[in-house]
Amino acid sequence: MKKAVHKANTRGHSNHGWLDSHHSFSFANYFNPERVYFGMLRVLNDDIVTGGNGFGTHPHENMEIISIPLEGDLEHKDSMGTAGVIRKNDVQIMSAGTGVFHSEYNKNPDQVVNFLQLWIFPKYKDIAPRYDQKTFDPACRKNQFQEIVSPIESSGSGVKINQDAYLHMAEIAEGNILDYHIKCEGNGVYAFVLNGSLELEGEQLEERDAIGVYETETLKFKAIKNAEVLLIEVPMN
To answer: Residue 201 pLDDT > 90, yes or no?
Structure first.
């Protein structure tokens, strides 16, 4: 087993007034040669956007882009004609493929929106752009792993991604232990603690801490305090 611990206070940080963003991996003006990616996971941004503000229309191509709101409402529009709002317990994925333009805005003028944006390298390049969104019942992640993203080619229950990747969320009550089994041989897992405190493979992780683990088949999570965690399983090569 190999692992890399990324404490919350070691992430990249940029504050533009309307946008307060923490970067788990090199992004924009933040560059750390030791944190460019974890396997096929290229970006994990923890963004807080003030009321009524957001990202204007901009392009993407050949990237799987996942948005997970943690607080507030995020409005989305894209060049495929998709328009909608995603909220807490929603997961949105956009396969940029041959190219797509989109914008993301905080729908509410009087409150912030906090969301995670992930970029994962695609399995197949130059596919037709595709958009999907799904709402998940938070009760189904109480002391168990709830699948929220799964490969297009699988029968999984998550929003579909063009990669052999799986995302899960779990809310683990204090003292409980959960085992996670790697879905695809050779994949690794990047575990990101949303809140609370847990222990994983001998490492104690607090809110917004993360650990990348690979060359293993099973991971054991123990909640030191009530904890919520996001697991990002991706191919390492």
So the answer is: no
3-state helix vs strand vs coil in the chain, percent to 5: 5, 60, 40
CA distances from 11 to 24, 30, 31, 162, 195 (A): 5, 9, 10, 27, 16
Neighbours of 81 (CB within 10 A): 7
CATH 2.60.120.10 location in the chain: 11-135, 138-235
pLDDT, mean over the chain: 97
Q: How confident is the model at residue 170 (pLDDT cuts 50, 70, 90)?
A: very high
Tens digit of each residue's pLDDT (9 = 90 or more) over 108-134: 999 999 999 999 999 999 999 999 999
Quick one: DSSP state of residue 16? -
- List, as one string, the DSSP characters of 143-186: TSPEEEEEETTS--SSEEESSS-EEEEEEE-TT-EEEEE-SSTT
Residue with the two structure tokens 């695609």: 122
Q: Give the mean model confidence (pLDDT) for residues 159-177.
A: 98
User: How many other CB atoms are there within 10 angstroms of residue 13's CB atom?
Assistant: 12
Homologous superfamily, domain 11-135? Jelly Rolls (2.60.120.10)
Name the CATH architecture for the domain at 138-235: Sandwich (2.60)
